[in-house]
User: What shape does this take?
Amino acid sequence: MQNLLKEHTRYLIEDAWPQQRKGIVPVDESHRITALQAQLALFEPQTKAQELLHENTLRQFNTFYEDRRARIYSLTSGIPPILWYTVAVGALINMILIWLFDLRPHAHRLLGGLISFYLGTVISVIALMDHPYRGALGLSPDAFELIYHQVMGQ
Assistant: This one.
């Protein structure tokens, strides 16, 4: 079981995560998860303590599996287009409202610049959150590397 966990963690760090950054769903991962699940199913607890430990392990595996499914789903899904339309309409309304103000040119440029900066920041955050695992700014496998080195002693 420990060898399967080591191999899977190593696979996540070296193979799966770079694929995710490119928007590719890792294919080999499901075989590794099935092997882990089969090993867990084969274990027969002999004592009450082993039974409790096994039950907790199965619960943790279930959480791990759900988190994995959410990670894989986030590679193929994105923010709905209606959100982008809402942001575009909001930007247009802001531009029209600023245009309607009767201000001196200096104040007009300052107000327009501040609102443009804020709107650009909001759009950037939405775009980054759309695909959290992709690109250089995406989530990194640092947590898996830390676990691999500390817990598994590699």
Remarks:
- The chain has a mean pLDDT of 86.
